[in-house]
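Example is below:
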Amino acid sequence: MRYFSELYDSIALPDSNGTRAETVAVSVLYTVLAAAVTAIVIYGAFFGGITALILRSTFYSTVAMAGLLAFGLQARLGLERMALYLLALVAIIPGPYLWQSYFDIIMRGAMSTRLDEVMFVGVLAVTLVLVRKSLGWSLIVLLLVALLYAYFGYLIPGKYGHGGYDLARLTSTLVLSTEGFYGVPMGVAVEYIFLFSFLGTLLMATGAGQVFVDVARGLTGRVQGGPGLSAALSSALVGTINGSAVANVVTTGTFTIPLMKNVGYSARLAGAIEAAASSAGQILPPVMGAAAFLMAEIIGVPYSTIALAALVPGLLYVLALIVAVRLEAGKLNLPRDPDAGLKLLFETLKKRGYLLLPLIGIVYLMATGMTPTRAAVYCIMLALLISPWRKDTRIGLTGLLVVCRNTLFSTLPIVAAVAAAGGVIGVLNLTGMGLMVSSLITELGGGSIWAILLLTALASFILGMGLPTSAAYLLLAVLVAPALVRLGLPPIAAHMYIFYFGLVSAITPPVALAAYAAASISGAGANETAVESIRLGFVKLFVPFLFVTMPGILMLGSGAQIFLAIVLSTCAVVTLSIAFSGWLVRPMTWGERGLLVVATLLICWPTAVDSYDPLTLLARIAGLAIAGFTIFRLTTASSTKSVEAQVN
């Protein structure tokens, strides 16, 4: 009995408004469904052989049922609770129904019957409620507008109108095929997102997250302002295995933010450093955010290609953050961390370094050509094998069930988002609106690549504010990316561009969820924390424009182009970081900061990185000279003053 009591305490759902018996029943069923989803995903990833429509519909039905049960338990009104429980029963039907009827659907060419149409209405209702409860209204409005446009398109005059699509046609496209709710986005959710989220949650449960924190402290702790540098590195490293900025803030911020405040960082700056560092996980390989897997599927390249392309921009982001944090520490004259240093690093690696083996393994396996899904399964097995080596990292049956439950918690909003986004994309493809919007952007830009880039950045930012990163990226990939590709950008550069601007809302008002989460821990104002995090994480706004003139930072082009792009972009990021900080050995004047900004713009002269025309060469040489002279003058002037003071 004691075991079952402890098991229930571990899996009990939070925020329950039901009776004790109801809470127990729903919590147990939720955990069973989470375990079932995990089994389906791992089986499909390792063995394959399950038809896409069957796998995706079964996955979505199970996740949706679990989510609606959890939301039902949280409902305060008894009538609302019962409605959500009934809808949960509706949610579980489409998966088994499509499984049982699959061959019949194939034989009739996916032409819908009256029962199929009822099924479509049920799936739509489930999706709308699930999105509303987990994400809000933005995606609901988009989906409903798309469906109304598809149905009443015959009422719209001109080229944006169409003949209209009735319920039967919508059912055939959105439910009976892999073009709608069960389209590519849902496929990525079941094949990649849930699987890698499970791996990340499992690694966090074994203590790998704390290993990252201690390794970062060991590397940076003896440097001035070490706790800030430790926070930046550890949060970025932990982010590589969970891919969620907000979850990362909540996980590592509870430790790093108080530590930074204790050594002298202000509450605002401590929260901003944590928010900026935590959002690095979405752009850093090997396990990036969900949108990275979607990108690989949409472009049609291996995920390892996307991860390799994201490596240098991600490292530039971390570099800029580390430079900014170190300069802030010098400006505030902060102390070093006396408990950190190489001794802590060696002790951590000696005692708990083995916990990093799964992460090292997944990088190695993908580098040798293994598919990401199979590599993830092998690394899950490795994590389970090594976890019993120490008592405090051991994962028993209860711990494994908790990992399954927590994975479902973290991925539920993403699954809801990709279902709704899949519906919108299905309508855009059915009506041809996607191509028309892409043409409209090209027309508004007047054929100017920079005007179109600015319009694209604005559209990406606006969608990123109202939607999860994965949903925003999906819509932008259909609506905007084709316009950029048509202008001559490589597909990876075009998709990375919208990807970066779609996820920057994690640290930019009015949304800034990561910054607001950090502010709630630090005690600083939410908006002031967000503004500070923008200053620290400016690379997300700056680097995407370099994808156009310096695609070498995405590992595209010849060896010389890649080398020049990396060198020039690194110089630009460092000089801009110093300019934004306003301090280098001593406080800088506005004139000196302005010179560094001008130098950065000249270094990033908007022509091809290997262009040798006189104007480009003059601009870049002048930029490097101005930056070098300004930095040399700042450092030597300070040294001279210091020597004179000692002589006197």
In short: Residues 639-648 have pLDDT under 50 and may be disordered.
